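ok, trying the design again with the full structure, not the truncated one.
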């Protein structure tokens, strides 16, 4: 049935292309549609907003899954959600949060803010930027449609072999995981290439590497981590796909495979993944704390060094996830030392943020509350991380709720709080309105108290022996109070998110209009209107020092100094090809999930046709006239 639906979609899609997709009158009508303008956009700011909307949708899905998990574990011997359904919930919650929520929402901020911070008019590859987004969406939708067609993945978010092989996970569930993550992973790699090229080649004159804002630095290092971390995961998913769909034996012990190889491949990606999630959050806090402390970031150069060192050491710690595998004391000792060593550059950053606040005129806006709360929460997560780096202790903590508590303190207390701080901080720049601060603070306190109620008791649940990945527990084992409090905390976090959603809706309808610089910011994005014009800067600015906009406000005349005369501005043309290519990948993935080789091949044919069309397409773009650029607050 599903295959028939896919074939019907493909036929209708190809029919649309053949009958109207390249018909000039049809395209002219479509281009008048606002929806079509969003589908075909290559503007980095619009793509950032699309990432934000899509990440928000998947955040709601993953949050609902977490709520159902905690309801099941609220009381002992509960039968609300049991067995394989519970396994599917835990798998999809972890996978969705890490691959479809945390990094994409950070990508939203990167896409919108980084070109503005470096004084660029766009990213280096606008077409690829659009393609990366649509591949992320198509992979995410393919993964989540598993709830409707054939059952969701159930082998855990780490997808360990042999649990993920056909013998233990029959049906299409794990196929969705393998193919959905491959498609979205291609989009992530494309985006990383784009960010690196943009930062290296499109900085405004005077914007040297040691004048880059910290958020741009963390974007640069995060993109480099993606470049080296995602290929091993892609290779592992490719081999898993061949094991499940084509009968290979890379990980099947019956055919001579090795299940430990999957663990190595996954964690060579999986632990750098933690740092590529937390580094952009570090960048957000490095922008928020100086702005609301009215002080320059303390120890800028040491912060840059710490970011680069974290990115380097992040590839040298993956084995601490495998201390119980039995690789021996030498390997365990080396990776225990490297894991403890990475706490040093992280500690540098914590002290630098504290010293930035020390003696400052702190203004506790909602964004600053998230930054201050993050320091406490992340330090707690870091301390338990050092505990897990101690091999004898890890043998006791492993696969207990102590690990669950540590991981959530780092990801929720670090990455998600960074996302929310950046959300409140840059919302005026993105949408031209200021979020309601009173609602924002109510949202913060519900969310922040919820984090500690939800995850602090889980440390003690783990120390008392409660294993992770179980759907129930017996009464009178000392687990009742901790699980009840943890579930209450999850409901408080949910209330905080609901208040945030209400704040967004209220602000979009009645919120106060934001001026160009509502927070008295320090970096270049605050020098242009809110929201920025399509071309960002009427004239490419000349950067004269660190904190370029603050420098012009304090030591200049409050206007950016141009590095070029006022003239024609060339902008790239919108394109529908990225969307169609992503649809082709989606159809191909759906076909391979159900072993329908014809549908899979047809989807790839669509992709290759679009690539062929693109290779012969001349993108002349369009120009904006100089008279459209006057009065933008930039010296001529």
């Amino acid at each position: 049935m599903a295959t028939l639906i896919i074939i019907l979609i493909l036929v209708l899609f190809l029919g649309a292309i053949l009958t109207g997709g390249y018909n000039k009158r049809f395209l002219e009508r479509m281009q008048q549609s606002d929806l079509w303008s969003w589908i075909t956009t290559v503007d980095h700011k619009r793509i950032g907003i699309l990432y934000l909307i899509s990440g928000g949708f998947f955040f709601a899905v993953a949050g609902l899954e977490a709520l159902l998990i905690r309801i099941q574990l609220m009381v002992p011997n509960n039968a609300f959600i049991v067995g394989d359904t519970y396994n599917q919930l835990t798998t999809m919650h972890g996978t969705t949060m890490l691959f479809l929520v945390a990094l994409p929402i950070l990508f939203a901020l990167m896409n919108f803010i980084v070109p503005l911070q470096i004084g660029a008019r766009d990213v280096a590859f606008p077409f690829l930027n659009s393609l990366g987004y649509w591949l992320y969406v198509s992979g995410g939708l393919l993964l989540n449609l598993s709830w409707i067609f054939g059952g969701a993945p159930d082998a855990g978010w780490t997808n360990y072999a042999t649990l993920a092989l056909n013998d233990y996970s029959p049906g299409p569930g794990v196929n969705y995981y393998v193919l959905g993550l491959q498609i979205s992973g291609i989009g992530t790699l494309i985006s990383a290439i784009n960010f690196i090229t943009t930062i290296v080649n499109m900085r405004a004159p005077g914007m040297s590497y040691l004048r880059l804002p910290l958020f741009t630095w963390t974007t640069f290092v995060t993109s480099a981590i993606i470049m080296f971390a995602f290929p091993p995961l892609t290779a592992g998913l490719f081999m898993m796909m061949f094991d499940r769909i084509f009968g290979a034996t890379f990980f099947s012990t019956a055919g001579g495979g090795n299940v430990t190889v999957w663990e190595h491949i996954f964690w060579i990606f999986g632990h750098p993944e933690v740092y590529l999630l937390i580094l952009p959050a570090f960048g957000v806090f490095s922008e928020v704390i100086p702005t609301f402390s009215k002080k320059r970031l303390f120890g800028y150069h040491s912060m840059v060094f710490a970011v680069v060192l974290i990115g380097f050491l992040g590839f040298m710690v993956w084995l601490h996830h495998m201390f119980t595998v039995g690789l021996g004391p030498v390997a365990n000792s080396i990776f225990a030392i490297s894991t403890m060593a990475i706490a040093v550059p992280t500690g540098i950053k914590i002290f630098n943020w504290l010293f930035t606040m020390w003696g400052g005129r702190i203004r506790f806006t909602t964004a600053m509350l998230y930054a201050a709360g993050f320091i406490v929460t992340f330090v707690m997560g870091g301390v338990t991380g050092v505990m897990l780096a101690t091999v004898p202790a890890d043998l006791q903590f492993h696969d207990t709720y102590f690990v669950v508590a540590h991981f959530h303190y780092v990801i929720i207390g670090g990455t998600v709080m960074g996302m929310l701080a950046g959300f409140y901080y840059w919302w005026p720049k993105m949408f031209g309105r200021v979020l309601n601060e009173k609602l924002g603070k109510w949202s913060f306190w519900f969310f922040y108290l919820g984090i500690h109620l939800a995850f602090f008791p889980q440390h003690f649940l783990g120390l008392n022996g409660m294993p992770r990945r179980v759907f129930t527990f017996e009464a009178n084992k000392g687990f009742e109070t901790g699980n009840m409090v943890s579930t209450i905390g999850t409901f408080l976090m949910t209330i905080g998110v609901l208040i945030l959603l209400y704040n967004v809706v209220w602000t979009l309808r009645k919120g106060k209009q934001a001026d160009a610089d509502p927070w008295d910011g320090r970096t270049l994005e605050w020098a242009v209107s809110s929201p920025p014009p399509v071309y960002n800067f009427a004239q490419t600015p000349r950067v004269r020092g660190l904190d370029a906009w603050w420098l012009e406000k304090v030591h200049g005349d409050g206007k950016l100094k141009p590095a070029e005369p006022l003239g024609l501005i060339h902008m790239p043309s919108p394109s529908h090809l990225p969307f169609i290519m992503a649809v082709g990948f989606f159809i191909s993935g759906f076909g391979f999930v159900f072993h329908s080789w014809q549908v899979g091949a047809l989807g790839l044919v669509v992709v290759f046709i679009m690539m062929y069309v693109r290779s012969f397409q001349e993108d002349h773009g369009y120009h904006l006239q100089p008279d459209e650029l006057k009065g933008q607050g930039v010296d001529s």
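Keeping the full-length input from now on. The beta strands are 433-434, 512-513, 541-542, 561-562, 569-571, 622-624.
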